[in-house]
Amino acid sequence: MKIKVLMTDLLAFAAIGAFAQIGELSDANDDYTKFDGLRSNMTIAKPMLMTAKTHIDKAAANAKTSALPQTLALKAGIYASLAAIDEDAAAATSDYATAQDALIKAQAADTKNENATMIKHATVELAQVQLNKGVKAFQNKNYDDAYKSFDAARQLIPEDTTAILYTAISASNAKNYPVAITNYNKLVGVTNYSTKGKISAYNDMTTLYLYNKDTTGATKVISDAVTKYPDNADLRKREIEVSLQAGQQSNLIGKIETAIKGDPNNKTLYYYEGLTYSQIAEAAGNEIKKLEKADKKAAAAKPGTKPAVNPQIEKLRQTRLDNYSKSAEQYKKAVAIDPNYFEAVLNLGYVIIAPAIDIYNDAQQLPTTQQKAYDAAMAKATAQFDLAKPYVLKAVELNPQSIDALTNLKSYYLGKKDTENANAVQKKIDALPKAATPSAQ
User: Which of 79, 77, 61, 69 is nearest to 24 (CA)?
Assistant: First the structure.
């Protein structure tokens, strides 16, 4: 009988011990819940967290509760929060490691998903610790460390767009372009990511490919972006820029013309074809300036010699003129569909007036002995300026606050030697708000 009594007492003691540890688990959960609700006021909240730690440590130390999914999940959450608030770097690192270990075990043990909420909470808490570390490193321009922290956060919460974006940006700053591109690619594939964010990601990816001297990759990315967002003006312009850099402008023009065949009344398509031609003309103009500068430098090295006519410059001038003409044709088609299409009207005035300015400036370089040639050039320039007049006036009518429209009008008056009106337009430009920025072109 004494043996039976002893056994009964032992069983009762064991049951009481188990219930005690379950009680520790319950208390840990209660205190941690209170901490989470009060964490905006850490003076009040922190003692709750420390009490929760005491309870969870006891539960984790007992053989009967240490391996329970709830214990592991709670331990992960509590220690993750400790890592987030601990001001001692070594202690925070230790807390993080403890939380990480508990989280891995909790994920494996919670086969019935009964603790999924706490496991998710702990995961997010750990990710936030890494995000905070990454921000500090980034602010200190330690981009490699920032990338490592942000990427660690991303691995914990792989669908979180902030973590993906920060990983991409820090990798880019660390000049780890392939990794940055990979993460931007993930961003554009996230369903609930904003259109604005995706467009920005496409632009950044394009830039990174160009940094990596991969024009093929850049062309593909920006082409995909335009296909997905065909009405976005910034992406269209970027596609033109990249195509020019890649020497693929003819492919782009062919692509736009194919689109026009399928949608001949789409004013925007004519506008972008006009913009492509005008960008080719501008690129030719930039090359002319480089060659002229090189020729002047070479002539200066040989005093008394007259620079020879550079056939390459003459060829580029014709290319510039031809493409401005083609550009004007396309802008006119856009304006025919919508006479109040400001961007097309503005750019049409510009591509007509640009050759007039070239002729005018070239005439000023003629020696006084070539008066006849000067008069002929000025007459040609005047006629070209007059062709632009209706469009430069219309652009200002459509948008009187456009610095580009006003600048084109001022150029017209200067070309016509109408100083009074040119000065009047300059006064309007000076009166524009400081925030006025260039548009179109």
Answer: 61
